[in-house]
Write a structure and sequence with these properties.
- Helix content is 6%, strand content 44%.
- The protein has three helices and 25 strands.
- Strands 1, 2, 3, 5, 10, 11, 13, 14, 17, 20, 21, 24 and 25 form a 13-stranded mixed β-sheet that branches. Strands 8-7-4-12-6-9 form a six-stranded mixed β-sheet, with no helix packed on it. Strands 16-22-18-19 form a four-stranded antiparallel β-sheet, with no helix packed on it.
- The chain folds into two domains: 3-30 and 208-364, Jelly Rolls, CATH 2.60.120.230; 45-200, Jelly Rolls (Sandwich).
- The chain has 370 residues and is mostly beta strands.
- A hairpin with a 2-residue loop joins strand 1 and strand 2 (9-11).
- Its main location: secreted.
- It catalyses: a [peptide]-C-terminal glycine + 2 L-ascorbate + O2 = a [peptide]-C-terminal (2S)-2-hydroxyglycine + 2 monodehydro-L-ascorbate radical + H2O.
- It comes from Tetranychus urticae.
- Its EC number is 1.14.17.3.
- Residues 205-350 form the Copper type II ascorbate-dependent monooxygenase C-terminal domain.
Length: 370
């Protein structure tokens, strides 16, 4: 499911619970907000994915509800329309699952607690606890910080339903504050999807997301580089068209790179303290292919008197660089996550995939105005 680059070695380890939790942390903050133009004459239907009048009663509650996709036809998601505000929902994620973590046959809007990272479930919570998905899952979409609607590029869509591993979409909403709900309010936050059937022949490029991130810790009163890299190990041609960066409050700059035959090409560069949306890729003519190396760096300034590690709360940190891409036809990236152990055990300079980092790249990867 993921590619973990720790201590300079890449390995696949589907049973690494700690890494699964770090991945869950990272995708929590993924929010798309790049407007691209789809064909206006596309045969679209709107599919509302909304919470069914929920009433969370514990701070940092993560609630999930599942929606079945068509069994006997293939569809493509081409637009995401938020029905939420940041005053109510800290973030929203849509996952693709074969089997949701909890599902009641005759209760399609069953709701459950699904915050794997928080580890906090109130004793008085009316909701059962279960994972988001049972088995494998994929990221379809995420929203945060009042991001606007996302329209995918022309001919591009996320494939769901028949012929895919996505039999269900699971809506997860993070309720960081619950004061209004303790006073009796209920919520219907969610996302409205624009979907086109495969029979419309309007989509011939499959969308996907690749996430680069790190674990690690930042020493007190220091500037640290949190870095990661991985090698594309399958025959595939990926066309990146958008990127997103994410850290918490200590992040100063996040950059992502494509290394092709030793040549570094910038994918994207962003101050993570500015709106954390998806932005157009630096050069949309770039193609990521087999044996290429992808790398990312977060420059962190820990002005605090104590070390800060990667973790789930605002007092912890994160380092993520997201790449949104399309592929021709029906190809799909096998390994969608690329993580390193981070500092103090992993740095680019010690990674044989990277080799010597050119001085100009090293400067640009951390060039921010203090």
């Amino acid at each position: 499911m993921y590619l973990f680059n720790g201590n300079n070695l890449c390995s696949n380890n589907h049973h690494d619970l700690a890494m699964k939790k770090i991945l869950t942390l990272a995708i929590i903050f993924l929010s798309f907000a790049v407007p691209f133009a789809q064909s206006t004459n596309m045969n679209l239907k709107h599919f509302p994915m909304l919470m069914p009048q929920v009433q969370p009663n514990t701070k940092d509650s993560y609630l999930c509800t599942a929606f079945r996709m068509p069994r006997y036809r293939t569809e493509y998601i081409v637009e995401f329309i938020p029905n939420a505000t940041m005053e109510t929902a800290h973030h929203i994620i849509i996952y693709g699952c074969k089997v949701p973590g909890y599902h009641v046959r005759d209760s399609p809007r069953a709701v459950w607690e699904c915050g794997e990272m928080s580890g906090v479930v109130g004793p008085d919570s009316p909701y059962l606890r279960a994972p988001v998905c049972t088995g494998t899952y994929s990221i379809i979409y995420a929203w945060a910080m009042d991001a606007p609607s996302l329209v995918l590029p022309d001919k591009v869509g996320f494939k769901v339903g028949k012929g895919t591993d996505i039999a269900f979409l699971v809506l997860q909403v993070h309720y960081a504050k619950v004061d209004r709900f303790l006073k009796g309010d209920r919520d219907q936050s969610g996302i409205i999807l624009s979907i086109t059937p495969d029979s419309a022949n309007r989509v011939n490029k499959r969308a996907g997301v690749l996430l680069l991130g790190t674990q690690g810790s930042i020493p007190a009163k220091s500037i640290e580089h949190m870095e990661t890299s991985c090698k594309i190990s399958q025959p595939i041609l990926m066309h990146p068209f958008a990127f997103r960066t994410h850290t918490h409050k200590l992040g100063k700059l996040v950059t992502g790179w494509l290394i092709e035959d030793g040549k570094w090409k910038l994918l994207g560069k962003r101050d993570p303290q500015k709106p954390q949306m998806f932005y157009p890729i630096n050069n949309e003519s770039l193609i990521i292919k087999e044996n290429d190396v992808l790398a990312a760096r977060c420059t962190m300034d820990n002005y605090l008197s104590h070390p800060v590690s990667v973790g789930p709360t605002g007092d912890d940190e994160m380092c993520n660089f997201y790449i949104m891409f399309w592929v021709d036809g029906d190809d799909e990236l096998d390994e969608k996550y690329c993580f390193s152990s981070g500092p103090p055990t992993y740095y680019w300079k010690n990674d044989p995939l990277i080799g010597q980092v050119p001085d100009d790249i090293d400067r640009e990867a951390s060039n921010y105005i203090q």
